């Protein structure tokens, strides 16, 4: 038994030694790595440029003992740079760029990308690092307005023109929208393949030399439109033109208004002309701390006039407007085919003087890593920045430095969401009730208003009945809609304008049993709305 125990101990020690050796080997395989476990002062250089006032801090990631480089203030520009011991040649073999970023307070507008800078001979100094400092690659998340992407930009020199051009990866992946730690990886392979990973998962693959993957293409077009050629003055590229022979009709009145007053409209019976739509709230009182000199003369808030609730409307009645049957608008001649149409003009193509060919991109070596951002949010944490020549090394770092933190954060997030779900149920139900109260005020549901309000009151007293109440109200609404549809199909007698003969006939209606025209119009309105005509406000007429 003792020998077995010794054997087990030896196996454990051997396994532990292997793990340590693997970690040490990974560190040896990394060209550059910074875990930020030690303060960054002296290793990273903060820009002295006036525009960059943001303060960097060596800080722990929330909920962990792991340190990182923290953005501390909102609405600031930040710039900091780390020189590499030796420039990294990106043209030899595979190169992996990887780092972690965490938006601890969320991110609405700002960047969290890295710039991999060219050697200082290109014209920059660490203390003067800014957005104009020449970089070879820019990589990382950026969110603001409609922008939401993980950038990958290659800045390459055109050997013909000598100019540096930014080539943007087309359709880059979106940035995770949470407050968790995420690891961003770019793998550049010798066969010109580029892969972008988020949390170890491939989100985008492309080819550096493909015109479908980079804009503008890294290899320019062989021909370009002649910039010196201009369209001839007599070139007509209009497919259709206004008919030159067309004449405006004599009865076309361009000045006729779109809407006119409905002269047939009659003020509803019971309309309260002398009552305002809103009155001062009689229950409102002036606040004790109200100062007329500082706050102005206090006025009671307005409420709907209760007298208008049972009336068809209040205030000055005005006839509603209706579409003018004589309205035609501005006259325009019809379009006809253009007999002089020559097609769409474009300049002729000429050989592109800046065209070149290559079998792989011309990567400038990277001699430093910089973070140069402008952000509206504080709390952005950078961590575990890595440059390696082996993607397995990058995977090992993800597994040992990022993944344990992410698992803890994910579990905490899940627990908080479950707790918030139960706490927010009451708030959700309140929103449902608010919507239901608005439904009750819909005019064509006026006949069912009391029934709907009764359902809502029961649900407020017993929140567990909310779903049942929703179903009940839906049934009521559907019933009202069906009644509206079927009542709308009834053929109502059309009421013509009264003539002297009709007027004489109407005098005998008491014996004939027929209804006055005004009553028939009221019934038509009721059938169209599925019930009694709703109360009208002055602004609705």
Description:
This protein is α+β, with helices and mostly antiparallel strands. Among the domains are: 29-224 and 360-399, Jelly Rolls; 425-477, no CATH class. It has nine helices and 25 strands. The strands form six sheets. Strands 2, 5, 7, 8, 9, 10, 11, 15 and 24 form a nine-stranded antiparallel sheet that branches. Strands 1, 3, 4, 6, 12, 13, 14 and 25 form an eight-stranded antiparallel sheet that branches. A hairpin with a 6-residue loop joins strand 3 and strand 4 (67-71). The N and C termini lie far apart (99 Å).
CATH class wording of the domain at 29-224 and 360-399 = Mainly Beta
Strand content: 25-35%
Number of strands: 25
Mean pLDDT over the full residue set: 83
Backbone shape: extended
Measured on Cα atoms, how large is the radius of gyration?
38 Å
Poorly predicted tracts of residues: 1-27, 488-541
Q: Class by helix and strand content?
A: alpha+beta
Helix count, DSSP H or I runs of 4 or more residues = 9
Biased composition (Basic and acidic residues): 227-241
Disulfide bonds: 109-144
Biased composition (Acidic residues): 271-282, 517-526
Signal peptide: 1-24
What secondary-structure arrangement, pairings included, does this model have?
Elements: H1 2-29, E1 30-34, E2 45-46, E3 56-60, E4 67-71, E5 76-88, E6 95-103, E7 109-111, E8 114-117, E9 135-144, E10 147-157, E11 164-169, E12 181-188, E13 193-198, E14 201-207, E15 214-215, E16 223-225, E17 240-242, E18 259-261, E19 278-280, H2 292-295, E20 302-304, E21 321-323, E22 335-337, E23 349-351, E24 366-375, E25 380-388, H3 391-423, H4 425-440, H5 449-461, H6 466-488, H7 500-506, H8 509-512, H9 517-529
Antiparallel strand pairs: 1-25, 2-5, 3-4, 4-25, 5-24, 6-12, 6-25, 7-9, 8-9, 8-24, 9-10, 10-11, 11-15, 12-13, 13-14, 16-23, 17-22, 18-21, 19-20
Helix pairs in contact: 1-3, 4-5, 5-6
